[in-house]
Amino acid sequence: MDKDQKEALQVAKELTAKFIETRTVSPGNFAEIFPAVCRVVYRSIKELKDSEGDSGQ
Q1: What is the pLDDT of residues 8-41, one digit of tens each?
Q2: pLDDT score at 56
């Protein structure tokens, strides 16, 4: 597992926990919601890194 994947997992875990705390997501939906959140976070990280590479930063 690379650094970006680990970072995405950590952020997704924190976001999902917040969703559960705010009752946006129920604990029963965790298995359905967590992978989707993780994919979105990972894609966002990759897109940001790609865009930074394109701009020469």
Answers
A1: 999 999 999 999 999 999 999 999 999 999 999 9
A2: 54
**Element holding 8 (H helix, E strand):** helix 3-21
Tokens found for residue 57: 């930063």
Q: How far is CA 7 from CA 21, 22, 44, 53, in A?
A: 21, 23, 11, 19
Q: Count the alpha carbons within 13 Å of 16 in the hemisphere toward its beta carbon.
A: 22
What's this model's pTM, rounded to 2 decimal places? 0.80
Question: In 3-state terms, the chain is what percent helix, strand and coil (to 5)?
Answer: 80, 0, 20
Q: Which domain holds residue 37?
A: 3-54
Which amino acid, one-letter code, is at 44?
S
As for how many domains the chain has, the answer is 1
